[in-house]
Amino acid sequence: MKAKILITDPLAEEGIDVLRQEAEVDVRLGLKGPELLTDIGDYDALAVRSETKVTAQVIEAGQRLQVIGRAGVGVDNIDVEAATNRGIVVVNAPTGNIVSAAEHTIALMLASCRNIPQAHASLKGGQWRRSEFVGLEVRNKVLGIVGLGQVGTLVTRRAQGLEMSVIAYDPFVSEDYAHKLGVEMVSLETLLARADFISVHTTLTSATKGIIGERELTLVKPAVRIMNTARGGIIDEEALYRALEEGRVAGAAIDVFSQEPAVDNILLKSNKAIVTPHLGASTAEAQTTVAVDVAHQILAVLKGMAAPYAVNAPLISPEVMSIFAPFLRLSSVVGRMAMQLAGGVGSIRISYNGEIASYDTTPLKATLLGGLLESVSEDRVNIVNVNLVASRRGLKITEHKDTVCENYGNLITVEITTPTGTTQVAGTQMRGEPHIVMINGYWLDVYPTQGYFLVSDHRDRPGLIGAVGNILGNADINISFMQVGRREARGQALMVLGLDEPVGAEQCQRILNIPDVYAVKVVKL
Fold first, then answer.
1. Residues 345, 416: contact at Cβ < 8 Å?
2. Residue extents of the structural domains in the chain
3. Which of 228, 209, 230, 223 is nearest to 267 (CA)?
4. Catalytic residue chosen out of the listed positions 49, 70, 86, 278
5. Contact between residue 348 and residue 396 where contact means Cβ atoms under 8 Å apart
6. Does 3-94+285-302 match 98-275 in CATH topology?
7. Residue 454 phi/psi, 5° resolution?
8. Is there a contact between 302 and 3 (Cβ–Cβ < 8 Å)?
9. Fold annotation for 317-412
């Protein structure tokens, strides 16, 4: 059955077409309030822009939701914490509109220093007043970039093409990177004092909110012009308005505001401020790109794959995921088999041997824990909330990594220790399929197709396997395969039988009554 995806905000048709290739898509623009709460439970994915408020209530009502996609950068309208608690992946499209945002920044800068909006309005009003709109060149001026991320970097390159010098403040960017970009890294105070133009390109956090406020605006040149195409609230709008009106700042060009729609914002009252209604990403190319980007990510999550721009999950590169992909099903199978054999959860130790130990193994840990808890918990466990679920259930999980693997290319082993003992299951990937190759210290080769498995702990002796087969045969239970591991002839051994039908309690007890059979467990995959 195809997954169902709900779209509640305008999305470029190209993105919708991508989704429709593999899912059932409902476009219901403006759906909100009680109606959204009622209907969201029917959908596996939700795609929005900035209009729909995806609150904790909406997330709680979306019992089938696996992924929420934001066609854009900011996720302020999505309760990411509530989504994480539910194991719902939140994805965005942070690179789809960066060129548009950078170009809009340059456009605002040029419009500000050449008084383009004011001159346009004057001429439209029937006046030819050239002398009032004398501007200035950007060539040989200093541009100060606050936040040298992706957009800040693109603005830098374009400014350098205009023969500007660029200085930047960003405590999370290395001197090496800045040097290669031809940018001088400085403190915020130095940037404010030296820059002829200041452009903001940082995210809005508790640390950056109001980062340019009343005090900072006392440090700038009177001829400075300030641009913000990042997020409203980074610049104190009241303080900026006062600085403009008092002549301490020559001009401002603002695209984003602390409250939007910003029809009553104080900056609209200043003739020295150029304002646009959050147009940074509003180009035909950007709208198409972010829609297609987020559509591909939504489909990836629905297929059980990692999304490159999951907001509430670690970033896993496509190269690493291509290595991990075959082991995701394996880790789930290992977890499910170990849990059913152990019969309970105590401390958990996961070991990774081989090439996979060289990488961040969070995806493998998540799928293993998901398989382990499948039969005992309603929690949806994935890469998003694996540590949260483990903490909430009080699970003590340790991980061990070793790039050396003696018997196989890669090996995933889980040990579950309970008051009754330790259960150990290891698996590897062979011929494109998962194989269980060790149970409780016994080496064997079990290809765990869907079905039932009878696992017996017994003494290796003549006639025992035949006796087990006789009991199953009399119950019309077909054996698909058999694997036996032992440490020595006529010593303790472990047998795994693949079965086409389930084993009843009566047959298990009869097998357990066979002399030298110590334990019998049934596993269902």
1. yes
2. 3-94+285-302, 98-275, 317-412
3. 228
4. 278
5. yes
6. yes
7. -105, 125
8. yes
9. 60s Ribosomal Protein L30; Chain: A; (3.30.1330)
Write the pLDDT tens digit of every residue in 222-274. 999 999 999 999 999 999 999 999 999 999 999 999 998 999 999 999 999 99
Q: Determine the pLDDT at residue 223.
A: 97
Q: Give the separation between CA 519 and CA 501, rounded to whole angstroms.
A: 20
Distances (CA, A) of 346 to 374, 413, 414, 483: 15, 16, 12, 28
Segments of 440-516 assigned E as strands: 442-446, 452-459, 479-486, 492-499
Residue % of the chain over a pLDDT of 70: 95
Residue 413, token pair as written in the block: 């082993």
CATH 3.40.50.720 fits 98-275, yes or no: yes
Cα–Cα–Cα angle for 441, 462, 509, nearest 5°?
70
Is pLDDT at 467 greater than 80 in this prediction?
yes
DSSP string covering 401-421, please? EES--SSSSEEEEEEEEETTE
Contact 410, 404 (CB under 8 A): no
Structure tokens that stand for 242 in this block: 């006062």
Q: Is 278 a catalytic residue?
A: yes
Farthest-apart Cα atoms in the chain, separation? 109
* CA–CA gap between residue 2 and residue 23 (Å, rounded): 5
Q: What's the rounded mean pLDDT across residues 48-73?
A: 93
**CATH classification of 3-94+285-302, choosing from 3.40.50.720, 3.30.930.10, 3.90.79.10, 3.40.630.30?**
3.40.50.720
Instruction: Give pLDDT tens digits for 137-158.
Output: 999 999 999 999 889 999 999 9
CA distance 49 to 74: 9
Q: Say which of 137, 238, 260, 285 is annotated catalytic.
A: 260
DSSP string, 120-148: HHHHHTT---GGGG-----TTPEEEEE--
| Chain mean pLDDT for the chain | 90
Measure the CA dihedral 498/501/502/507, to 10°.
-80
**Exactly one of 231, 336, 435, 510 is catalytic; which is it?**
231
Does residue 303 have a pLDDT over 80? yes
